[in-house]
Design goal:
Elements (H helix, E strand, L loop, with lengths): L2 H7 L8 E2 L2 E2 L27
Antiparallel strand pairs: 1-2
């Protein structure tokens, strides 16, 4: 799938509620970082707490 279509369909940011220093996720929920490339690339992930 071309990159411009992936960018339109997949979010690039995510907001997760945090309580007591822990993410408020359901029992079967998780946070995953997915790379849609054939070869590995170095990435930088930024986490912002407000």
């Amino acid at each position: 799938m071309p990159a411009h279509i992936k960018a339109a369909l997949l979010p690039t940011s995510l907001q997760i509620p945090v309580r007591g220093g822990r993410p408020m996720l359901g029992q079967w929920q998780g946070i995953y970082l997915v790379e849609h490339r054939d070869a590995p690339h170095r990435r930088r992930v930024a986490v912002h707490f407000a």
